[in-house]
Amino acid sequence: MKKTLWGAVSATAAIVAAGALLLTPxxxxxxxxxxxxxxxxxxxxxxxxxxxxxxxxxxxxxNVDVNVEIYNPTDQDEFFQAVKDNTAxxxxxxxxxxxxxxxxxxxxxxxxxxxxxxxxxPNLAKMMPVFRNDQTPFYNGVRYGVPYNCGPYGxxxxxxxxxxEPNSWNVLWSPMYAGQYTINNNFPKVNVWISALALGYGYxxxxxxxxxDRAKVQEKLNVLAKNAKSxxxxxxxxxxxxxxxxxTTWGFAAQAANLKGGNWRLATPAEGGTAWIDCWYLxxxxxxxxxxxxxxxxxxxxxxxxQADVVKSQGVSPVMxxxxxxxxxxxxxxxxxxxxxxxxxxxxxxxxxxxTEQAFNEMWETAKQQRN
Length: 372
What we know:
Elements: H1 2-23, H2 25-28, E1 34-41, H3 51-62, E2 64-71, H4 77-84, E3 90-91, E4 106-107, E5 110-111, E6 113-114, H5 129-132, E7 138-139, E8 142-143, E9 145-152, E10 154-158, E11 181-184, H6 188-198, H7 203-206, H8 214-226, E12 230-232, E13 246-249, H9 252-259, E14 264-266, E15 274-283, H10 288-301, H11 304-312, E16 317-318, H12 329-334, H13 340-345, E17 347-348, H14 354-368
Parallel strand pairs: 1-2, 1-3, 11-12, 11-13, 15-17
Antiparallel strand pairs: 3-15, 4-5, 6-15, 7-8, 9-15, 9-16, 10-13, 10-14
Helix pairs in contact: 6-8, 6-14, 8-14
């Protein structure tokens, strides 16, 4: 009896001692955070302003210290090269880029992209249907890309010099504005499109060289290039805008010029216009936690705060209708926030045939020769 009691006391003491050990700081210490790197190749302004908030989100949710490496290209070719060479986990090209023949990313044995796991991107379900239902970022019925923002190849005008909103692309061919506008250089197709629209062609025509009178469009394009004050690559230069009356722009430069005291607006030409969608795609080389963090980034960029900043900082349109209470009514109207009908009224960029893309490139090179 005495022996049994002593054994019970000893066992109890052992349990208490073990419990005390579990409660010591050394045993309750939180695991050291894992370190990861996320490589993003994206247009300027699409990542750098948001890195710190993203790092905090990842630290809180995954106990991971993530280093975000950012590279900003000036030409769309660099997006393709980044996933081909596996130097980027995440890219932000125009939505149709992976299906363009010379950038094709789904060839068997040469798959440069991978599908996204939409369960990791819950904000996708709340995206405006016109963007969410676009089939361009799908391949064999599987989603590879997620839209991020959208903007026109737009006609901007300087209210300090152009008192009435232009209602036609043909204003760019008006002799009074020769030498007073800037246009894009490194996306030849956009200038072919506005030249064709100005001539009266419709959306069913402008994406196919075989539906256009090439000589007629070439003549129009030649004048457009010759009379431009400047040509821009990547994005128009807002520092040049005070000297200009008109500009073509993705929207970025007009907003930047206004933040510096300018008075620029975007016109709505009667002939209509084209609009690009930039999309997040995952490089095929992103694996494990890197892939998870890439999908976390996509979902993070669809949150109301970041989508409002698409307007505030980038001067283009968000793909989400919900931008919180950050934007005023004028900003929402100017950038068509949540305006499904507007985005159905413009021609969203499409995949061009190799023949059409080559023809458009040749036409633009011919037009630029008029500037010599």
